[in-house]
């Protein structure tokens, strides 16, 4: 089932999410719905706060990035086979020299900006079967994980922008929160009702 994606301005996107256990109600169904929602919106990642739930859960499938012909074959393969669920994740380490990449977000449609992130991470998490993993990722996979991880920490990519960039996109963000935007996927706008 496709869920509405929560738009910029909703308080759930700014809250630090809570851990869950394997008895979380209808977890498998929620994960299935999140996959449906993400693919319907042509996303490469989706965090539970983006569907209105303040829990430490996100999923990624960065396969669309594998079509970039500038990437090495090894990285293209890694991107194609990286469909994963992260439950109660904890970033243990971020390493390397920060690099910029133009990021967007399903909760902030039509806004893309360069965000600086470190290229390598080590993360501890549980998968959908509640098996624990500690893994290292780099490049675009690491970036997608960092972006989604920020969501469960209550951080949006726009929070990482300079004050000048934030001022330049301020009216766009205000319009998104009011629902004054055309998107081809289901969204929930926090200020849309008040604006009418």
What do these coordinates show?
Fe cation binds at residues 105, 147, 151. This is Peptide deformylase. By secondary structure, this protein is an alpha+beta fold. It has one domain: Peptide Deformylase. Helices cover 29% and strands 28% of the residues. The chain is built from five helices and nine strands; from the N terminus they run βαββαβββββααβα. Strands 2-3-4-7-8 form a five-stranded antiparallel beta sheet, with helices on both faces. The longest helix has 16 residues, at 163-178. The protein is globular, with a radius of gyration of 16 Å. The model has no long low-confidence stretch (mean pLDDT 94).
Q: In CATH's first tier, which class applies?
A: Alpha Beta
Share in helix: 25-40%
Count all strands and give the number: 9
Shape: globular
What is the CATH superfamily?
Peptide deformylase
The radius of gyration is 16 Å
Count of helix runs: 5
Question: What string, H for helix and E for strand, traces the elements in order?
Answer: EHEEHEEEEEHHEH
Could you say which structural class the secondary elements and strand pairing correspond to?
alpha+beta
CATH topology: Peptide Deformylase
List keywords for this structure.
five-stranded antiparallel sheet; 5 helices; 29% helix; 9 strands; 196 residues; Peptide_deformylase_sf; iron; alpha+beta; protein biosynthesis; hydrolase; Peptide Deformylase; Peptide_deformylase; single chain; two-stranded parallel ribbon
Topology:
Layout (H helix, E strand, L loop, with lengths): L4 E2 L20 H14 L4 E3 L9 E4 L12 H8 L3 E12 L3 E7 L2 E10 L2 E7 L5 E7 H14 L10 H16 L8 E2 L3 H4 L1
Parallel strand pairs: 1-9
Antiparallel strand pairs: 2-3, 3-4, 4-7, 5-6, 7-8
């Amino acid at each position: 089932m496709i869920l509405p994606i929560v738009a910029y301005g909703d308080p759930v996107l700014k809250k630090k999410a809570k851990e869950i256990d394997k008895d979380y109600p209808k977890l498998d169904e929620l994960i299935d719905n999140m996959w449906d929602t993400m693919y319907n919106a042509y996303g490469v990642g989706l965090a539970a706060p983006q569907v209105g739930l303040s829990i430490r859960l996100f999923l990624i499938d960065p396969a669309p990035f594998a079509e970039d012909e500038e990437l090495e074959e090894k990285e293209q393969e890694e991107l194609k086979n990286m469909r994963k669920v992260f439950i109660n994740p904890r970033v243990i380490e971020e390493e390397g020299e920060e690099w910029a990449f133009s990021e967007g977000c399903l909760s902030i449609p039509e806004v893309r900006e360069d965000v600086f992130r470190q290229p390598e991470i080590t993360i501890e998490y549980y998968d959908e079967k509640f098996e624990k993993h500690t893994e290292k990722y780099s490049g675009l996979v690491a970036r997608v994980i960092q972006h989604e991880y920020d969501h469960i920490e209550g951080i949006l990519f726009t929070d990482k922008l300079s004050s000048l960039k934030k001022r330049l996109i301020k009216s766009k963000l205000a319009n998104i929160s009011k629902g004054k935007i055309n998107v081809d996927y289901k969204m929930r706008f926090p200020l849309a009702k008040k604006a009418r």
